[in-house]
Design a protein that fits this description.
5 helices; mainly alpha
C-alpha cells in the first residue's frame, strides 16, 4: 500500500473524530487524534467505536456507515461492527 492510501485513511479518521468530538469529549478526541498521528489507524477506529459503545452515544446512519466502511477497508470486521451495535441511531 502506498502513501496515498494511508493519507486517505488518516483523513477519513480525522474527519470522523472531528464530527464526533462534541459527543466524545475533548480529551478522548485528543487521544484519538494522537493514535492517528502516529499511524495507529486500527487502534483509533477500535477506540472510537469502543468509546461510543461504552457510553451508548447516538450516531447517525452516515457516521455508522463511515465507520463500517473503514472497518471493512482495514479488515477489522469483528470488533467495530459489534461495538457499534450498542449505539442508538441519532435523530
Amino acid at each position: 500500500m502506498d502513501a496515498a492510501y494511508f493519507e486517505d485513511l488518516a483523513g477519513r479518521l480525522y474527519g470522523l473524530v472531528i464530527r464526533l468530538e462534541d459527543r466524545l469529549g475533548g480529551e478522548q478526541a485528543q487521544l484519538f487524534h494522537h493514535f492517528i498521528e502516529v499511524g495507529e489507524y486500527g487502534l483509533a477506529l477500535e477506540e472510537i467505536a469502543g468509546a461510543l459503545a461504552q457510553d451508548t452515544i447516538a450516531i447517525t446512519d452516515q457516521e455508522r456507515g463511515d465507520m463500517l466502511a473503514l472497518a471493512r477497508q482495514m479488515k477489522m470486521d469483528d470488533l467495530v461492527p459489534h461495538a457499534l451495535g450498542f449505539c442508538p441511531q441519532a435523530r
